[in-house]
Amino acid sequence: DQTPFHEPFVLFSFMAAVTQKLEFATGIIILPQRQTALVAKQAATLDVLSGGRLRVGIGIGWNEVEYMALGEDFHNRGKRIEEQVDLLQQLWTQPLVTFQGQWHTVPDAGINPMPIQQPIPIWFGGHAEAVMRRVAKRGAGWMPNYRSAADAQPTLAILDRYLAEAGRTRAEIGIEPRLNYGDGQPERWRVALEEWAAAGATHFTINTM
Fold it and tell me: 59 in helix, strand or coil?
């Protein structure tokens, strides 16, 4: 891949210092590649430095090479991310946490300073049914990567089913699709915006690659 990417926590820390209103959203961090407590600390620090302007978008990724390079297990990433989210939310809302999971042990420890947002909103990327279940149960929002709202309808139906099981509705979560700036056609962007808005989109990402 020839497209350059900056590490988002480092980039957003710089941007937080030179902005006042701009909000920041990672789109997305491959969470199972990273140490959970370290992500909790980095995100909390960024939330404090930015005045509570952070959303954390996460996913499990597809590139096994990245996992190998970081010394993490590619094959259990789906199960681990759910435990990671549970631990993140506790670390962002409790001064002291005692946590015993399958992959994480925290014996009466916490982060200081705590984030301004307690918890920092977690959004999920991905399209698998397991992702929809995670959004419904644990998520503040979903970051779909479908080309159009019509393409996303079957997955939105699955999401609605899991939201109902969790006692929630689509009005309680955010949806942030991606629009491709590289199409170069403002009329296409307008139509896509209207279609996604009708499907319940609350935010939009502009993909400039």
Answer: strand
